[in-house]
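[STRUCTURE TOKENS]
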Amino acid sequence: MFNLVKPKTIRKRDEMNKTKGISLSVDMDTDKVQLKLRANAKHTEALADELDAIDNTWSCDCGSLDYSDHTYPSGSLVTRVCDMCKESYIIPNEELPTRLEGSD
């Protein structure tokens, strides 16, 4: 069976506005905090680049990650040949972005 819970008393809006706030003053040297935040940003960027590289890793339908690239004379297309099954793929020779637009 269900246990019904009695509703709590609802304060009127005027009562809520009358509550006093808490003031807090903090004195601290932020130089170390800034250095820590910069280190964090540097490592976060490196991690994002590494995760992008993993996402952009090419793999053959057979599951192999080993391949050889042969660029067309025009430079706009690449023939990628799987080293395991020797299947070839024609792919555009475009590098995928590694940064979000406007994140500079």
